[in-house]
Design a protein that fits this description.
It is built from 8 helices and 12 strands. It has 307 residues and is of the alpha+beta class.
């Protein structure tokens, strides 16, 4: 499903991907540093003018959305810089839970949530089991306006009363479309990592004049990286090791084993000695450094590629 969305350039986010480091992202920290250096009052237009001079990145685009929201909430009034910083801190804690595109999630994770439009995919639901009937009911009742219940062509696995009935005035039964052959994109699994998935102290254990810091500074969100699997998964930029994944990281479970893995920069976050666990601080060779957080793309093999 996510592969189809990527192919069609549809904004998509996974319900199990919650990036917890928005406040530490390079672009957000740059705006915070600019605000702290100012001594006067600011408004959303001041921040937007500063942002317009920054290079275009997905995170700067997200900041533009934040500033539009800040302008609406503040009424465009000028305020002390500290007030703006505090608003951004609250926004960064909440933004990861906001829907910004097509949201893909399980029925379990949808409990307590509501959406204008809901599509429930065919997951091999067994109507004979009480627990699955209740879970299917949970998925259906997340919808405010429209609900679409999907069934594989020829499948007998979904036998809910709603699907079996054609008399409901609010129900429209549609014949399945003829789908084109699967593309190569359908054989890919996207995995966006969080801070817990990377070695946060990797660059910090190297002196500030080490080439790794320059290479990380030159990276931006979306840049391609080389991914190598050694004792740990390692990230390279033009042959230079710029990051490692956490020791406990393992690739997502899938049908068929990964036969190829690619990586690109999802975010560059700032880190420092004080944020590191106490037992690792003596290993830090610099006080502040940047960390590469990647998005990984696995190409899988096997006959079932409907991911």
């Amino acid at each position: 499903m996510r592969a189809c969305c990527e192919l069609l350039s549809i904004p998509v986010q996974m319900g199990n991907e919650e990036f917890g480091g928005v406040w530490r992202v390079r672009e957000v920290q740059a705006l915070i540093e600019w605000l702290r250096d100012r001594q006067d009052m600011v408004d959303a237009d001041d921040c937007r003018a500063w942002l317009d001079e920054r290079p275009p990145t997905p995170w700067n685009d997200l900041l533009r959305e934040a500033l539009a929201e800040y302008q609406q909430e503040s009424g465009g009034a000028r305020a002390p810089t500290q007030q703006c910083i505090e608003w951004l801190a609250e926004w960064s804690r909440d933004v990861r839970r906001r829907q910004r595109g097509l949201l893909l999630l399980t029925a379990h994770r949808a409990k307590g949530l509501e959406f204008d439009h809901v599509v429930v995919l065919d997951g091999g639901w067994e109507d004979r089991r009480d627990d699955e009937r209740r879970l299917y009911y949970v998925a259906m009742t997340r919808a405010r306006l429209t609900l679409a219940l999907m069934c594989f062509d020829g499948s007998n696995r979904l036998r809910t009363p709603l699907l079996a009935s054609s008399s409901a005035h609010s129900t429209l039964h549609c014949q399945p479309p003829v789908l084109p052959p699967p593309t190569s994109e359908m054989a890919k699994i996207w995995s966006r990592l969080d801070l817990k998935d990377v070695d946060l102290g990797f660059a910090g254990r190297r002196p500030i004049d080490d080439p790794v810091h320059r290479h990380i500074r030159e990276l931006n969100a979306g840049d391609c990286l080389e991914l190598r699997e050694n004792e740990r998964w390692e990230l390279f930029d033009r042959g230079v090791l710029v990051g490692r994944l956490a020791q406990q990281y393992s690739p997502p479970a899938m049908n068929g084993q990964p036969r190829q893995a690619q990586a690109r920069v999802a975010a560059i976050v700032t880190w420092d000695r004080e944020l590191s666990p106490a037992e690792y601080r003596d290993h830090c060779a610099c006080d502040v450094w940047e960390v590469v957080v990647p998005e990984l793309v696995f190409t899988v093999e096997g006959p079932d590629r409907r991911q």
